[in-house]
Amino acid sequence: MTMLAELQDLSRRRHERPLPRVSVVHGPSVPGGVLRVLAALAVGGLVLLTAARTSLLPDLALSAALVLAMWTAVRPGRVPSHLAVVLSAAVLLGAQSAPFDPAVLWLAPLGFLTVRLGWWAEHTSWTGRVEWAALRATAGRDLTICGATVVLGAAAWAAAAASVGVLVVLGGIAVVAIGWAFLPR
Length: 185
What we know:
- Keywords: Membrane, Transmembrane, Transmembrane helix.
- This is Integral membrane protein.
- The chain crosses the membrane at residues 30-49, 56-73, 103-121, 157-183.
- Strands 1-2 form a two-stranded antiparallel sheet.
- The model has no long low-confidence stretch (mean pLDDT 81).
- It has helices at residues 3-16, 32-51, 58-74, 78-92, 104-122, 132-137, 139-158, 164-182, and strands at 29-31, 129-131.
- The chain is mainly alpha-helical.
């Protein structure tokens, strides 16, 4: 069949069987720009809150937080979010109360929130929208991971009178196992 014949056939079929009418209903939603701003604030806040726990130079911490926050605002995604979490963990190793700083009990959920906001911001444009139903779909899993991590950290902190090195290794393995069990691959 020639190209002209195919176009005529397509036109004829379209008029014979019109496309069905589809109605779409949108629920309450969050603008994509809000998700991007929240992701940038979470990245910067995580780095600043972690740096406040150490004797790191405030100018260096502020610079790192601003660079990561601007990177997240311009090009959101998993990379700046994960980099903020890794940088925060590395900075905590220099804390006065290392190897286990009690701040981990609130920094771990904040790190997880940072990564999740980075994921949502990466998948949403500035003008796009995300329905609350989509955000709620993973809320149970996210709260389970955060809760298990906090409980695990609190148990390690309570047992810190014992050999801390072994507990840190066991806690790290447990957090990886929790993430592996609940996060999609």
